[in-house]
Amino acid sequence: MPLLKFESMLKTNNIYFFDLVEFEEIIVHYLDVGKISLAKKAIKLGLEQHPESIDLKLLMVELHLTENEVDKATVLLKKIELSSPNNDEVFIQKATINSKKGFHKEALLNLEQALTFTDDKIDVWSLMGMEYLYLDDYRNARISFANCIEADYEDYSALYNIVYCFDMQKEHQEAIHYLKSYIDINPYCEVAWHQIGRQYFVLENYKEALIAFDYAVLIDESFLGGYLEKAKTLEQLGKYQDAIDNYLITIELDDPTAYVYLRIGECYEKLEKLEAAVSYYKKAVHEDPLLDKGWILLTNLYFEQEHYQKSAYYLAKALKIDEDNALYWRRYAEINLRLSFFEEAVVGFNSCLKLGDSSPEIYIGLTDVLSFLGEFDDALKVLLEAQKVYKDIAEIEYRLVGLFFILNKEKYAFIHLIRGMEIDYEYHTILNELYPSVYDHVEVQKLLKNYKKAIE
């Protein structure tokens, strides 16, 4: 075997003769596995034994490009072109250099020239497709990859790239039409059925997607991706137990992943089998402790079950992983409210605002907690900020009534009371819930009754 013979030669410092084909096999192997220093030694020795070999010189160009030595590759390629002007590999390497420099249109011209000199057009079409992708020219990229398919119907890499082009242009119906025409010729291609299923899934046609994924796994019973997509589709159809069964098949076929454990857990939660859901969520975070989604699913499940201490425990894990997630801080505030930890709830609501979650319920929640803590000035500041963004919201107006009264600014309180009644008279009962002393105020009651008479 040439490789063993070459490595034996390196150990003994003896010099053995290799023919050109053997050198090419050795060099290509070392380049493929990333053993660059050994590839260099093989090329050096090869050129010593076969100094006129164009193929070895082209491999030297490839080596230069692997090491990002573009200038050296360019100089050597010019020399090679002088002695071998019709060599397709020269133009392919020229294209590689232009592509590395970002000159994709020039690279395409090089590849057009390569096509005129090569019998192995598939590789060139494939390279052209990639250059078109760099230019976001998905139509011509599709044409190039389609040429590959026409030459070799089992070129699945080209098939994936064609579907990718359709995806980027959001032409999902066109992708289905193309894939069906492909299946007419190659009906037992699980990859094509899988891709059709994906297109139907994107279009939310889950019944057709399921049929496609069924074909994919019938053709190849070990097709992991097919079972995974089938399971996701069954979820969308509300068939959670069937989805679980298919997710479990993926675990039998390959090592389990945190993602699959999460999906199974969510299916069990929808089936209201909460112990099983918790078990799989815990498996997910055991598999990947940095998966914050696993921790937050545990948080939410325990929150819904009113186990707030456990919910807080798991939320702390999620926040350690992603402390800039406003949704997590919202949940933090909600949990601490349930636990009557009001100062912590304030921290949660303030964190939401800092992170850009400035929805009305955040402002209102923060206002109510600050009011409960007796921090009326701070509560008023928060509410006035909210009013700049959200106008004509009764929840805000009636709270302003209460706060202005408490802070002895009755003039402003009545202005907001009138505005609140104009927006939603019935909602005035919130005053009785939040600020009962204000609600019972004689002038407030008078204004409420007079307004009701006026609108009846």
Explain what the structure shows.
With 456 residues, this protein is mostly helical. The chain has 28 helices and no strands. It has helices at 2-12, 20-33, 36-49, 54-66, 70-83, 88-100, 104-117, 121-134, 138-151, 156-168, 172-185, 190-202, 206-219, 224-236, 240-253, 258-270, 274-287, 292-304, 308-321, 326-338, 342-354, 360-372, 376-389, 394-406, 410-423, 430-434, 436-439, 442-455. Helix 17 (274-287) packs antiparallel against helix 18 and helix 25 (410-423) runs parallel beside helix 28 (442-455). It is elongated.
Per DSSP, the total helix count is: 28
Distance between the termini: 100 Å
What is the residue-averaged pLDDT? 90
Coarse morphology: elongated
Unreliable runs: none
Fraction of residues in H or I helices = over 70%
**What does the radius of gyration come to?**
34 Å
Describe the main β-sheet briefly. none
Beta-strand fraction estimate: under 5%
State the secondary-structure class. mainly alpha
Series of H and E elements:
HHHHHHHHHHHHHHHHHHHHHHHHHHHH
Number of strands: 0
Key terms:
28 helices, elongated, mainly alpha, 79% helix
What can be said about this structure in brief?
The chain has 456 residues and is an all-alpha fold.
How would you summarize the topology of this molecule?
Layout: H1 2-12, H2 20-33, H3 36-49, H4 54-66, H5 70-83, H6 88-100, H7 104-117, H8 121-134, H9 138-151, H10 156-168, H11 172-185, H12 190-202, H13 206-219, H14 224-236, H15 240-253, H16 258-270, H17 274-287, H18 292-304, H19 308-321, H20 326-338, H21 342-354, H22 360-372, H23 376-389, H24 394-406, H25 410-423, H26 430-434, H27 436-439, H28 442-455
Helix pairs in contact: 2-3, 2-4, 3-4, 4-5, 4-6, 5-6, 6-7, 7-8, 8-9, 9-10, 10-11, 10-12, 11-12, 12-13, 12-14, 13-14, 14-15, 15-16, 16-17, 16-18, 17-18, 18-19, 19-20, 20-21, 21-22, 22-23, 22-24, 23-24, 24-25, 25-28
